[in-house]
Amino acid sequence: MTATTAFSIPAWPADQLDSAVPPEPAAPYFDANLNAWVLSRYADILAAFRASTLFPASTNSAKPAEPMPPCEHLKMRAETIEALPASRINAWRDLLQPQADALAASLSAHDPVELLEAYARPLCLSLAATVTGISLDLARRLDEAAARVSASAAEPFDSETHRIADLANEELKPYFHAGPESLRDSGFVALSQTMPAILGNAWYALAQQPDAWNLLHRRPELIDHAVEELLRYAGLVRILGRMAQADIDLNGTTIRKGQRIILRIVAGNRDPERFSKPNQVEIARRDGGHLSLGAGGHACVGANLIRMAAATITGPLVRRFALATPAQPVEWCGGSGFRLPAAFWVSLS
User: Fold this and answer.
1) Which residues pair with 253 in a beta bridge?
2) What would the pLDDT profile of 213-243 be if each residue is shown by its tens digit?
3) Total domain count for the chain?
4) CATH number where 199 lies
C-alpha cells in the first residue's frame, strides 16, 4: 500500500514478524513527528490498557484525536459481551469443528498447499456467516467488500484505502441488522478477514520454528497454550492508538489531557523484562499474559471467540501434519496497523 499523506508514518521495522532483528522496548517518549507518546514496554502498555481515562483513538495524527465517547464505548462493550456467552461460542465451535476436520483431511501431503486460500479463509468465512446470521452464499458475495474494509485497518495512514473502505462499508451495512453493532458488518469483516490474517501469522511463526509445530503434532492437547503463545509471538496488531481524557501518570510518565498515545503491541509482547526467551515460540510457556487482545477494561470483547476459532482451525492442521515447510518465499501485505502473508505456500508432511 502507498500512503498518500505527507505526515509521518510509524516505521519500527523490527516490529514486523519477518524482521531479522527483534523489537527493542524502550522508555516512553514523545514523538513530535507522530504527535504522540510512544509506549513499547510491556508494563507501560499494560498500564495504558488498564487506565480508565485512556480511550481508543486513531494513531493517525492527521485525523482528529477525539475518541469514541466513553459512555458509548462502554455500552458497545457490554452489548457485545452479552452476545458472546460461552454457551454460544461452544455451539459455534461444534459447527466449525467438523468443517475444519474435513478440510484438513483434504489437504495434500504431496503437493505444495496455499494454506490461507485452501484452509483458513473458507473456514473463517463460514464462521463469519454463522456468527453474523447470514447465509454462506451471501458471505461469499460480500467477501471482496470486506477485504477492502480490512485493508484500511492494515494501513491506517493511507487516505485512499480509507476512502475505498468507506464505500465498502456502505455496501456491507444493509445486509446486517441483528445483534450488537460490533457483531454486524464490523464483526463480519473481523472474522472473514482479520481472523485468517491472525492464523497466517501464527502458522508462519510455527513453520519458522518447526520444533514447535512438531511438538503440537505430538501433543495436540497443548493447542490452547499454543494459541496464547502464538498470539504473543506473532500477534497481528502492530500498533494501537489511545487518547487521554484527563491528565494521567503512567509509571512515572505524565501524559496530558488530549494527548495521543501509540502502543507498540509487538514490542511489548517481546519485552525481555516480562518474558523469558521472548523471541522464541515456547508452546508450553508459563510466563503468559500477552497484550495482543488488550487487558483490563480495554480487553478485546471478542477474545474468547478469537481463541476458539484459532484453536479449532489450527488443531486439525497440526494433528494431521507433523511439519509444514515453506514452499515459497512469503510476500507480505498490510502496513503499520498490521501485516500478514499475502499467501502462504507450504509443503505438508
Assistant:
1) 250
2) 999 999 999 999 999 999 999 999 999 999 9
3) 1
4) 1.10.630.10
